[in-house]
Amino acid sequence: MKTYIPKQGEVTRKWLVMDAEGKSMGRIAAEVAKVLRGKHKPEFTPFLECGDYVLVVNVDKMVVTGTKMTDKVYYRHSGYKGGLKQTRMSDLMLKDPTSTLDIAIRGMLPHNSLGRSLATHFRLCVGADHPHTAQNPEPYEF
After folding, report:
1. What is the model's pLDDT at position 57?
2. Architecture of the domain defined by 15-64+97-139
């Protein structure tokens, strides 16, 4: 018996809306990464883009548990000597509430060309309104 591998044109994708209000940041990121990969579908193939497009609304109302707001630090490096920059999670959330969830979702995707491609398939919105009504997104409960 041969293993079924869907062709790129056979995969049907739809837009899903997830509401982040009152939900933990890590749980949201894990669920978004699962849907982006397509692991919720029976025709999941690890090396193909089988997943759906995801729109996350109310990102500013998500919950961060524990003392992560004061203790968690995000690092980045310019490439030059002494170029290490660090930002606390609370400062990053004040500046841009979507950036912390964006970093969490990208960290849960594969670290190769497939992951870079899948990282373009989700959008994060601060409020409940979003500009993607033309895609007719379906609500996704988790």
Report:
1. 96
2. Alpha-Beta Complex (3.90)
Show the tokens assigned to 111: 């670290």
Gap between the terminal Cα atoms of the chain: 35
Spatial CA neighbour of 50 closest among 33, 37, 32, 62: 37
- Per-domain boundaries in the chain: 15-64+97-139
In whole angstroms, give the CA distance from residue 130 to residue 105.
19
Q: Is the pTM of this model over 0.85?
A: yes
The list of the chain residues with pLDDT below 70 reads none
Contact 104, 24 (CB under 8 A): no
